[in-house]
Amino acid sequence: MSVVDPVTNQPGASFLIGGIPGSLQIADIAFDPTSGSGVLYAVQVATQNLLRIDPAASSTSIVGNIGFFDVEGLAVDPSGGGVLYGYDEDTDQLLTIDRTSGAGTSVGRVGIGAPLVALTFDPTDGTLYGTTVDDRRLLVRVDTATGAGTAVGCAGYRNVEALAHDPAADVVYGVDALLNYLVRFDAATGEGTFVAELSDTVNCLGLAFDSSTSTLYGVDGTASPDTLITIDTTDGSVTFVGGTGSLLVDTVRGLAYDSSADVLYGVDGSRLKSIDRTTGAATDIGEVYSQAGSELQGLAFDRARGVLLATVVSDADDFSGNLLLEVDPATAAATVVGETQWRTYGLASRR
To answer: Smallest Cα–Cα separation from 229: which of 279, 170, 179?
Structure first.
């Protein structure tokens, strides 16, 4: 984990490296909401050590060895005394992990027929969820008492590269880049539903939802400059608003809408833009992140904190350099939250 200099927007010193021997590839990371100080936990792939990360102090320490061979997921139960859970792919078991010693204890086998790739808790009811990495793309509910997994639903689409959340309906819209389908995901079940096929002349690169007018915006990257569009959420029909002023070499991809300030944002290669919803014209705010072989892709606005979240997608074969950023919408100054492990092309916030 590293911090980006807010003045130069260049990567600063990493505080995950210092004092930690061996390969620094991280399997997963989890925020501890019960710590009161922003503490994070992570798993070091090479050693299977549990790491404790204090972003405020820019320090990382080894807690101890988990005792399992392939822990891939981590999540802290915010409503259950701060218990840290993990998933061991080698044995298909849900674990509890001692935050003092790092030792893992088996809860039970998940048994869903495919390994889980991530864990997360629903803080409102204490439900633990995971997702599978097989072709079914399942959302799974995991029993924290037994470890048993239950399939909640199947997204059904594998090439969704743009997402936007409608808070009133609590649904997530996406565009499957391969099929060029507009799809709708149930935020509670993860199930994907076909809405409509977009015109074959449209290549939608980003989505954002304006909850005040129930308007779904997108960016069409087939023309130069690329064009702001609106998409009808019932039939998928597209209306062209206007050119953003970005050339295809640095096309606007992610979109996010701040309803309180009535501003539409987009990311263009390495830079943050504001986009006029009437004309489509883009205004440059500043450079967010610049690294060879990487570019900004996903974008979402966190209304609770008034910040943008963005993803950096790297072309590295080992999937390193794929990052989640927190971005100041006024200045474009960015802070690296952590590595996503996967190339994440779309983001949507439910807050």
So the answer is: 279
